Amino acid sequence: TNKAYLDLIQSKSIAYYVQESWPILLLAELGCIVVVAKRRWTSLYLLAWAVIAFIMLFFYAPIWYHHQILITVPIAILAGIAVGEALRLLPRLMRTRPIPHQQAFLIFSTLGILIFVLTSRLPLTLPDFQRPPVFITKAAHAPWREQVFLTKMSNHAPKTRWVVTTLTTFAFRVGLPVPPILAVPSYKRIANGELTEKQIIQIVDQYQPEQVLLRENEFPELEKHLEGGYRLLYSYSKKLLYLRKDLKGQ
């Protein structure tokens, strides 16, 4: 079973995941043309970033879908350069006679691909931004236990300015901010000492968050530190949700 699993995840290369972004790649190529034509040489670092990332990931396994971000981010910026230049030149093109063929090709190719991207991708992504938080407060089924964390956090959201947590998905789902240093609290940062328990305690003292969500025994000193000013609001499956004592309610 383990061998079959490894064969599965290693059978997908970075090219497999990047291919779904081919319209953005076309826009990025036009962006490179703009960069070279305008002699904005420093902007070529975006191209170097994407190419080097692709080469490094091409010889790496296993590859997951999220690895493509290392390539698609600079590619998207280059695509934005092409779109911005096309929109800037379009009014000038309409006033110019005869129309320069090179500029016309760049503008209409860029805008054509942009329209294709918007019409094909927007319907797929728009529901994710418009989905109401029904699953938090008005689920049609009995709530699963971890949903209770979302419900309780949402109940206190109007009086919450900050949430300190390494489980940032919970804060994101209820629309609550975390201190910037905790925006990416990956296990690697904690394991290599880049993010320490002492720093997180200092963050709690600095930001005075209304809510703190932790994994049980992940930061024992922090749990002790919270006993003075926080109460345990809910715990389940080795997760602990604390609420600052000056806030009332369940």
List keywords for this structure.
alpha+beta; 12 helices; 8% strand; four-stranded mixed β-sheet; 250 residues; 58% helix; elongated
SSE diagram, text form:
Elements: H1 2-10, H2 14-18, H3 22-37, H4 45-58, H5 69-95, H6 101-130, H7 134-137, H8 145-155, E1 163-165, H9 168-173, H10 187-191, H11 197-207, E2 211-215, H12 220-226, E3 230-236, E4 239-244
Notes on the structure:
The structure is a single chain. By secondary structure, this protein is of the alpha+beta class. Helices cover 58% and strands 8% of the residues. The chain is built from 12 helices and 4 strands, in the order H-H-H-H-H-H-H-H-E-H-H-H-E-H-E-E. The protein has helices at 2-10, 14-18, 22-37, 45-58, 69-95, 101-130, 134-137, 145-155, 168-173, 187-191, 197-207, 220-226; strands at residues 163-165, 211-215, 230-236, 239-244. Strands 1-2-4-3 form a 4-stranded mixed β-sheet. Strand 3 (230-236) and strand 4 (239-244) form a beta hairpin. The longest helix has 30 residues, at 101-130. The protein is elongated, with a radius of gyration of 24 Å. It starts with a helix and ends in a 6-residue tail after the last strand.
User: What profile does the largest beta sheet have?
Assistant: 4 strands, mixed
Q: How is the largest sheet built, in terms of strand order?
A: 1-2-4-3
Helix and strand string, N-terminal first? HHHHHHHHEHHHEHEE
**For the CA atoms, what is the radius of gyration?**
24 Å
Count of helix runs:
12
Note the gap between the termini: 45 Å
Outline: elongated
Beta content comes to 5-15%
Low-confidence stretches: none
Care to count the β-strands?
Answer: 4
Query: Mean pLDDT, as a whole number?
Result: 85
Structural class: alpha+beta
Q: Percent helix among the residues?
A: 55-70%
